[in-house]
Every structure is written in C-alpha cells, then in structure tokens.
Amino acid sequence: MARPEVYACADDMAQAIFAATGGEVRLALPLGLGKPISIVNALTRAAAADPSLRLSIFTALTLSRPRPEGDMQRRFLEPALDRLFGAYPGLHYAELIRDGTLPGNITVSEFFFQAGDWLGNDYAQRRYISANYTHARDVLIAQRPNVVAQLFAEEGGRLSMACNTDISADLFAFRTAGRMDFIAVGEVSDEMPFMLGAAVLEMEMDELAMKLRPKAPYGLFSAVRRPVSEVQHAIGLHVSRLIRDGGTLQIGIGAIGDAVANALLLREAGKLDEVWHASPFSLDGNEVGPFKVGLYAVTEMLVGGLIALFEAGILRREVEGAVIHAGFFVETRDMYQRLRDMPPAQRAKIAMMPVSYTNALYGDEAAKRAARVHARFVNGAMQASVLGDIMSDSARPGQVVSGVGGQFDFFQQAFALEGARAIVTLSATRSAAGKVTSNIAWTTPVVTVPRHMRDIVVTEYGTADLRGQTDEEVIKRMIAIADSRFQNQLIAEAQKAGKLNRDWRLPHAHRHNTPDRVAAWLAPWRGNILPDFPLGTDFDHTERALLPALDRLKTAAVSKGQMARLLIASILAQPHPQETQAMARMGFATDPHLLEPLAARALRGALRRSAAHRA
After folding, report:
1. Quick one: pLDDT band at residue 379, thresholds 50, 70, 90?
2. Distance, CA of 171 to CA of 151 (rounded, Å)
3. What is the DSSP string of 169-236?
4. Measured on CA atoms in the order 374, 378, 384, 390, is the torsion positive or negative?
5. How many CB atoms lie within 10 A of CB 73?
6. What is the DSSP string of 39-59?
7. Torsion-angle region of residue 178: left (phi > 0), alpha (psi -120 to 50) or beta?
8. What confidence tens digit (pLDDT) does each residue in 174-188 have?
C-alpha cells in the first residue's frame, strides 16, 4: 500500500480532502489538544469561501487562549500570552461561532466545552450534545464521519496519537476490523511527546491517507496552573487520608487536583503529622502513612499531579506493564517537556488508552476488576445538595459550563468495584458580584450525578461519607461540612421539608466552619509545604504577587465600600515588597503620586492589602 501523501501546505491538503469526499466532509476531531489546527482551519477556510462545500465537525473541548476583558486583564495577560498559554493559534470555526458569522454550510457540535467558554453563546449551546465520555464514541459514529483528523507525534518512522487515544484509538481499531470506513489524515507536531500504549500506529501507510508537515509549526496549548488557596489545600489534605496504599487513583485537573497530589507527596515524606494535630476540624480516614506498596492510576485525563506522583515513586504499582493508564492530556508546557525528556523506558510505564478502557469495566472486565482494587476516583463539582445530588456541568438549566465528561463513568465504576469510592470535592462557598453563597444547597438547579449514587463529598471543613445512609443522616453529614454562615438556613429548609427531625441540633464541633478558621489552621505551613504553586508555575515572581491583588480588585469592583478601602490602603498601608515591579509590569508608574489614575491607585491598594493578608 502507498505511503500517505505528504503536504507542506494545509490549504492544498484541505482541497485534496474535499476532493476525496465529494465536497462533503463529516469531520471527527479529538477532544482538546489533539486537534490538527492547521488542517482544521484550512478546511474551515475552504468551506467558508465555497458554499457548495459542506463541513460538519464533531468534537469536544475546543481550546482557546483567554480573551482579556477590561483594562486590568489586558495589562496582565497580553504581554505574557505566548509564554503562559503557548504560541497556539485559534481555531477558525470557534472565531466564526463567537462572531456569529459561521456560514450555513458549516456545523459544529461538541459534547464537552472548555469551562465557561460558551456561556451565553446561542449557537454553541444549541449544538451541544450531552453524553458520558464512554458514550461519546458511539454518538460520534452515529454521525457517520468520513474523515478522522489527528495531531501526531512522530518517532523512528512511527506515529503516536500521543495526547488523544480517548476515542481515536477505538475508531482506528474499528476501521481495521471493518466496522467503520473513513479517510484518516494527520498533522505532525515536533513538540508532542511520543506516547505508547494504544497510541502508536505501527504502519502509517496502512492508516493515513494524508500527512501534513506544516511550514510554520505552532506551539501546543498550555493550561496554566492557578494558585492553590487555603481552601483547596484543606480539601486536598482531607482527601489524602482516604487514599489507600496499594490501591488505584484517579484525579482531575485544576487547583484541587494539584492540592491532592501535593498532600499525597507530603504524606509520603512524613510531613503532615503536625498539620493533622493542628486541625480544628474533624478528620476522617486513617490512611496517613507512606506508600509501601504504591498506587496504580487509571484516569481519563493525565494531569500534572499524576506525573508528580509517578516521578516521586508513589505511583509504581504496575498493571499490564504500566503504572498509569490514561485517555488524554491537556496540561502545562512543563509537563509536555517532562514527558519528552523522560527516558523511554520510564515513559513506557504511561500507557495511553481509549476511554472505553479507562472509564468503563466492560471489555476484559475480570482483569480490570483485579487491577482496580481500592479505587479512589476524585473529581470536582460546582454545587451539591444536602441530599447528595451533584452539579458539575451547568450553571443553570439550559446553560452548559463544560459537560458531563467522564465524571458519571467513574461514579459507576466506584459502585461496581469492590472497595471503590467516588470522592467529590468542592469549596463550601463561592463569591460572585461581591456576594458569598453556599455551594451546599437544599437543591441544585441541575443534576449531573443523582443522589442515588451519592458517595463521599469533601469540602475544606471535612468529609461526608454518604453511601448507604438515610436521607436524614445524609443531610446531617452534609450540613456538618457546610459553611457555618449557611448552616441554620439549610437546617430550616430540611426541617420544613420533613427530612430532618425538628429536635436535631448541629453538634458544636461543626458550628465554627469559617474561612478564617481554615486560614489560621494552615497559616504556619503556607509559605513552606503548602505553597501557592506546589507543582510549579509559568507565572514569574512578579506575576505571582499580582494574582491575589487582581482577585481582590475584581471582588472590590462591585462594591463601593470595598473599593474605597483599597483606595485608602493605597495611601495608608505599608507598600507591598514587590510593589515597584508589580506596578511596572502592569504599565503604571512605580511610585505613587497625587495624579495617579484611579485604576493604578486601586491596584496599589489591592497589592498592599494582599501583602497584609499573607503576613
């Protein structure tokens, strides 16, 4: 069989793809990082320029760099976009959707969104397809794709799907078995780590019809780590006591995932005894010692926290020659570099697999059950009801924030596997427009995981083990980990509904769940073993100082009283140790003066108040 036709020009390749499909491309694209952007943008340009062509795209997690909103965001982000998020071009179809100019001969559907990106966008919300990750493959197949496009790593004449075996690996296997028929095209990235497992196409001439080596390669998207707060560190510490040595682990991306990984690293190093002793909150779980056997990870997403645990030797229990089985990754540039730099034998212990393997038990079920012992599946949520319903994908009915993804899949595994648990993490409160509300509510607007699958919920105030409990006991345990500012209201609502005995009183030990108490507990270790960026960051020293100040400024923007306090602080409070560098980084004068712009004065005050808070 002939080798794939190699192109240097994406537009030429797009014309060849349309010619091979009779002018109608039904395009299957990987979730996240694995999209071959040069090819996709060329196909979009061609279809937009020629109404006789048709382009239907089925995908998920369309990545985009942040678009600064307002002067402060612009000053902070624009000088550092390439360094922080990679020199990553936008997807043309996403730009057309945002502008409202997507032509009628192009359609786009996604089953998972980049968090918050498409809120308020009517087209994206209408075209969203709600599906569990394990079911997304079959939803895709029902669209009858005739082209599958992928970003590949290349090494020694072999191609690797690398960051996205999640669905693609099954599609190629189905085509080999005669169950599907499509044209496969690929783009090669020199920055993509060459991963093994089900990722490798051993004979590219049997797999690809066309391959693009672009004249102007682009950088991979980098998912910048956010600072880990006291609240998130507290959650990570609580979760770490639930992870059993010799067991199985899955954690998600984000600050709480970083906090969980950091807590497990500290547990391994024996550095948490004093932290536990100082805790003012109830501590559940007895898993506090080092890992004598080690853990095995099976996860849809390979995150930096898992790589840190792997490099530290905590993840070392092997299953079929691998220590980690994962379905996809989108992470920081640092993680991509670490994967590229790993000795091949070490990197081979990370096997990329389809989510039909990682997220489900069917298919070699006996072997999966034997491997996934004492599993702990740790995932975040936006809100939970006191009855145990979990909301993770939508802000309100009809407006999808992200999607179900694989969360429900891992709940199903937790209930199907002996000794397994599904752990949901969430901060007890959230702040918006200057108002603090509880993330534990009587009911949630949308349900992602229903209460008949309630298991373990963790906030900064502790752990609620809900599995097998009565509704009344579940309510008691959930209120015990809620913020104390909202506990009386939750008790009243539950009693009014007849779900809680009117004589019940919340134990005194849970009556002081406050942010100040969390901060006081962790303060002795915040600059040491519980830092803002336990797994590292692309933010420089000055930017790290600016982040809490900018958060404070954003909160104050909706409150005249808070803004006034910042302006007063800009005059009366002690200067921030990095105030000169921070003001210069934001394009303001370094020294205060009478004619200083109001925005600069407010930022200066926010810097000074954030310094006082950390002191």
Report:
1. very high
2. 15
3. HHHHHHHHTTS---EEEEEE-TTS---EETTEES-HHHH-SEEE--SS--PPP--PPPPPPHHHHHHH
4. negative
5. 14
6. HHHHHHHHHHH-TT-EEEEEE
7. left
8. 999 999 999 999 999
Cβ-in-10-Å burial (0-12, 13-18, 19+) of 365 comes to: exposed
Tokens of 249: 């682990």
Q: Has residue 2 got a pLDDT over 70?
A: no
Longest CA span, the chain = 79
Which residue carries 């770490």 as its tokens? 240
For 185-222, the pLDDT digits (tens) are 999 999 999 999 999 987 655 689 999 998 888 999 99
Q: CA 111, 117, 123: angle at the middle one, nearest 5?
A: 65
Query: How far apart are alpha carbons 84 and 2 in whole angstroms?
Result: 41
Instruction: Report which DSSP code applies to 114.
Output: S
Contact of 447 with 430, CB cutoff 8 Å: no
Cα–Cα nearest to 464, from 386, 573, 563, 544: 386
Phi, psi of 153 (to 5 degrees): -95, 150
Tokens (6 digits) for 387: 């009855």
Long-range contacts of 431-437 (CB under 8 A, 24+ apart): 431/555, 433/558, 434/555, 434/558, 434/559, 434/562, 436/485, 437/486
Please give the angle made by the CA atoms of 378, 131 and 196, to the nearest 5 degrees: 60
Closest residue by Cα to residue 348 from 517, 193, 491, 551 = 193
List of E strands, 11-167: 24-28, 54-59, 106-110, 147-155, 158-160
Query: CB–CB of 276/550 below 8 Å?
Result: no
Spatial contact of 132 and 404, defined as CB atoms under 8 Å apart: yes
Spell out the long-range contacts of 428-431 with Cβ–Cβ below 8 A and sequence spacing 24 or more.
428/231, 428/459, 428/460, 428/461, 428/481, 428/482, 428/483, 428/513, 429/483, 429/485, 429/486, 429/515, 431/555
Q: Contact 67/37 with Cβ under 8 angstroms?
A: no
Encoded tokens for 316: 């070392």
Q: What is the mean pLDDT of residues 520-530?
A: 95
Task: Match 């890992």 to its residue by tokens.
Answer: 291
Place of tokens 């051993």: 202
Whole-angstrom distance, CA of residue 269 vs CA of residue 261: 13
Whole-angstrom Cα distance, residue 263 to residue 170?
35
Q: pLDDT exceeding 70 applies to what percent of the chain?
A: 99
Per-residue b/e over 184-207, b at no fewer than 16 CB within 10 Å? bbbbbbeebbbbbbbbbbeebeeb
Per DSSP, the residues of 510-573 read GTT--HHHHHHHHGGGTTTTS-S-TT--SS-HHHHHHHHHHHHHHHHTT-HHHHHHHHHHHHHS
For residue 506, the model assigns a pLDDT of: 97
* Rounded Cα–Cα distance for residues 505 and 298 (Å): 42
DSSP string, 318-387: -BTTBSEEEEE----HHHHHHHHHS-HHHHTTEEE--HHHHS---SSHHHHHHHSTTEEEEEE-SEEETT
Residue 588: both structure tokens together: 């303001």
Residue 60 near residue 403 (C-beta atoms within 8 A): yes
The dihedral built from the CA positions of residue 445, 449, 451 and 456, taken in this order, carries a sign that is: negative
Pairing of strands 421-425, 375-380: parallel
Rounded Cα distance, 23 and 333, in Å: 37
SS3 298: strand
The Cα 143–Cα 157 span in angstroms is 32
Asked whether the predicted pLDDT for residue 610 surpasses 80, the reply is: yes
